[in-house]
Specification:
CATH class of one domain: Alpha Beta
CATH superfamily of one domain: Beta Polymerase, domain 2
Mean pLDDT: 94
Keywords: ATP-binding, Hydrolase, Magnesium, Metal-binding, Multifunctional enzyme, Nickel, Nucleotide-binding, Nucleotidyltransferase, RNA repair, RNA-binding, Transferase, tRNA processing
EC number: 2.7.7.72, 3.1.3.-, 3.1.4.-
Shape: elongated
Number of strands: 11
Pfam family, one: PolyA_pol_RNAbd
Protein name: Multifunctional CCA protein
Structural class: alpha+beta
Strand order of the largest sheet: 3-4-5-2-1-8-9
Largest sheet: 7 strands, mixed
Helix content: 40-55%
CATH topology of one domain: Beta Polymerase, domain 2
GO molecular function: ATP binding; CCA tRNA nucleotidyltransferase activity; CCACCA tRNA nucleotidyltransferase activity; cyclic-nucleotide phosphodiesterase activity; magnesium ion binding; phosphatase activity; tRNA binding
């Protein structure tokens, strides 16, 4: 579209950043300088903004927002007043953005406008806030942590200090559960999700909004099995391994949560963690209820918390215990979800320093034993059983026998 000479449009934010990084940009956001709402409508744009003027392009349907400034009017991240007018400059609009790497613009000829040094920080791999106004919006802490997970960039010292101040003064307490989960879920799907949690921990925000995760750091484990020793470090290694494998959100969340019970291990039995599996259920449920975690993520995580040690010991389980594991996980009806738990357990095993490529046959064994148990024709067995009251027991015994037969053939004695 050709705008009148007094009106100029710029691509801003993530699309500019990703273009400079050589990444495929997502949706393009535009800022329009020198226009009024009426002028936009006269050009055929459709208004859609509620809090401030945003318009849809009549052909591309991309969002065009009028250049605006903002000021803090109340605590929390909803407490802002916006001002949009033809005299608001592009630099004023960019100055309200969170990070320098997100405060660049590109005009319609492809020229970059970079008033805050975003290109230099992009080249150096630094996350740096644009202005002290960063401290007015606690969501920006979550966004910075998510960008750390996506790009692997480091925080500028002054930005980290500002985030620490925001955590100390309670600004992060204004974050609502839905937004914390939204940002965390997006971070879990990034290339290195540990960056999200380590960034929150570094600034002190994790202890306030994710205390169940924060409590894992500093908890020792047996060095002969966990060379990294620290439970929090182990969980981060396992989580990054899950990301490298390309696992879906539910599996990654299960990996994040699998060792929550270790933060509750009595001091007199450390660094061993006998009984950490059932201890992990309560903090998991509390975390999921507070953040309103979706049911599929919650249920897979609960199963992993309670059962991952049994999976690791698959070679030593008796056939009857193996069937109980299948039943406790509803694996007979939902083998796909059981497979997700096996994936999470593999990440747990390989999320240890020096064990990243270690074989994990337990997953293959349990998959094969589940296939054997599910091969039973329960209908035919029921038809040939006179004592219907004993039918569940008879079916269980038949499945145990199938599991035992597989073990005799395939597992070393």
């Amino acid at each position: 579209m050709i705008f009148p000479s007094a009106i100029r449009a710029y691509i801003v934010g993530g699309a500019v950043r990703d273009t400079l990084l050589g990444r495929t940009p997502g949706d393009r956001d535009w800022v329009v300088v020198g226009a009024t709402p009426q002028a936009m409508q006269d050009l055929g744009f459709k208004p859609v903004g509620k809090d401030f003027p945003v318009f849809l392009h009549p052909q591309t349907h991309e969002e065009y927002a009028l250049a605006r400034t903002e000021r803090k009017t109340a605590p929390g991240y909803h407490g802002f007043a916006f001002h949009a007018a033809p005299d608001v400059t592009l630099e004023q609009d960019l100055s309200r953005r969170d990070l320098t790497i997100n405060a660049m613009a590109m005009d319609e000829q492809g020229r970059i406008v970079d008033p805050f040094g975003g290109q230099a920080d992009l080249a150096a791999g630094i996350l740096r806030h644009v202005s002290p106004a960063f401290a007015e919006d606690p969501v920006r802490i979550l966004r910075v942590a998510r960008f750390a997970a996506r790009f692997g960039f480091t925080l500028a010292a002054e930005t980290l200090q500002l985030m620490r101040d925001m955590a100390d003064n309670g600004e992060v307490d204004a974050l609502v559960a839905e937004r914390v989960w939204q940002e965390m879920a997006r971070a879990l799907m990034e290339e290195k999700p540990s960056g999200f949690f380590l960034t929150l921990r570094a600034c002190g925000a994790q202890a306030r909004i994710l205390p169940e995760i924060d409590a894992l750091f500093g908890v020792p484990q047996r060095a002969d099995y966990h060379p990294e020793v620290d439970t929090g470090v182990h969980v981060m290694l396992a989580l990054d391994y899950a990301a490298a494998c390309g696992h879906p959100l539910a599996t990654r969340f299960a990996v994040l949560a699998h060792d929550l019970g270790k933060a509750l291990t009595p001091a007199d039995i450390l660094p061993r963690h006998i009984g950490h599996e059932p201890r992990g259920e309560a903090p998991l449920i509390e975390l999921c209820e507070r953040l309103r975690v979706p049911a599929d993520c919650r249920d897979l995580a609960r199963m992993t918390v309670l059962q991952h040690t049994k999976v690791h010991c698959a070679g030593e389980l008796r056939p009857a215990t193996t069937l109980k594991l299948f039943k406790d996980c509803d694996a007979m009806r939902r083998p796909e979800r059981f497979q997700q738990m096996l994936d999470a357990c593999l990440c747990d095993s390989r999320g240890r320093t020096g064990h990243e490529s270690e074989p994990y046959p337990q997953a293959d064994w349990l998959r094969a034993m589940l296939t054997a148990a599910r091969s039973l024709d329960a209908g035919a067995l029921a038809a040939g059983t006179a004592d219907k009251h004993r039918l569940p027991e008879i079916i269980d015994q038949a499945r145990i026998a199938l599991i035992a037969d597989w073990r005799k053939t395939h597992l070393p004695t």
